Amino acid sequence: MKEIITLEDIKLLVDTFYTKIKSDSLLAPVFTDKIQDRWPTHLEKMYSFWQTVLLNEHTYSGSPFVPHAKLPVNQNHFNRWLVLFYETIDENFSGEKAAEAKWRAEKMAEMFYHKIEYYKNNPDKLIL
């Protein structure tokens, strides 16, 4: 097991995680419908996002919530997403950054879930 310290580590994390997503019966349809044939672009964006979050190398800009605002997801989707993320971390990494990645993923999933639910119940307030 290794620490998450380089961009190559981030790429391993992201690639392994999204391989799991693509074969998951609950999550694959949501991701495939949204991303379609733009997987390389999505993965590059995720490398940049996690590089910024975990390595403090500011390569990501944008608003991460916006693409998720109208996804047809519920708590089960977020729970499964976290299971696969934690699995990926535990199978490949250890240390402080691995723990931080799990914590950040948990907080992000929690926030995204609550914001999506809010906008489902208040569609007139959704500003993208």
Q: Any overview of this molecule?
A:
It is a single chain. The protein has 128 residues and is mainly α. The protein is 66% helix and 0% strand. The chain has five helices and no strands. It starts with 6 loop residues before the first helix and ends in a 7-residue tail after the last helix. The relative contact order is 0.17.
User: Major beta sheet, specifics?
Assistant: none
Total number of helical segments? 5
CATH architecture, by name, is Orthogonal Bundle
For the termini, the CA-CA separation is 40 Å
The fraction of residues in strands falls at: under 5%
Indicate the mean pLDDT: 94
| Structural category | mainly alpha
**Rg, Cα atoms, Å:** 15 Å
Number of strands: 0
Give a quick set of tags describing it.
globular, mainly alpha, 5 helices, single chain, 128 residues, Globin-like
Question: TL;DR?
Answer:
The chain has helices spanning 7-22, 28-35, 39-55, 75-92, 96-121. With 128 residues, the protein is mostly helical.
Topology, element by element:
Blueprint: H1 7-22, H2 28-35, H3 39-55, H4 75-92, H5 96-121
Helix pairs in contact: 1-3, 1-4, 3-5, 4-5
